[in-house]
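I hope you will forgive my troubling you with a question about protein structure. You will find the record immediately after this paragraph.
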Amino acid sequence: MTSSTPAPSPQALSRRLLSGIARVFVVPVSVEGQLLLHRHEGERHCYWTYPTMQRGTMRTDPATVARRLLREELRIEARVLRLVHILQAAPTHARSAVYAVSLDLPAAEIIAAREAAGTSGRAMQALAVTAETLAALDVRPRPISDLLTTGGVPAQTLLALPDLLDPTPL
C-alpha cells in the first residue's frame, strides 16, 4: 500500500511561484500584433525596455502591480493578464514576474491616448518585429527578449506561452 501526499492547492503553488518577486514586467501586444516598449535615446545609442514597475510591498500581488502599470503607463484596464515567465535574480535584475497582455486596441491609438493624457516618463514605441530583428535590437532585459525569440514572431510566441498560474494547461 502506498501513501500519496495530497497535491498542493493552486493558491499554495501561486504563493511559492511568486515568492520573492521584486519587480514586475508587462509585455503588451496591440491588436495588430505589435509589442509596446519604452524607447530610450542616447547620443550614440538607442535601446528599448519592457514596461516595468517595482513591487512595492511584498504583500502586493504581482498581478495587481501589473494592472497598475498598465493603467499608469498605457491608460488601459487589462481584463486578462497571463503570468508567462519568472526571471530569477541576476546582476542586471531582481527576481521578476513577466506578464503578457493582449490588448484590443491598435498601437497608434494607445500611444496617442497616452500622449494626450500627458503621461510623463519615457517615450513609447510600437514594434512589429521578427525574432531575428528583436534579437538584433538592444531590448532589455535580455532574458525576456530571449524568451520571445524562440519562435518566428515574438508577439505570437508571447501570446502562445502558457499561463504559469493556470492549473489547466493549454
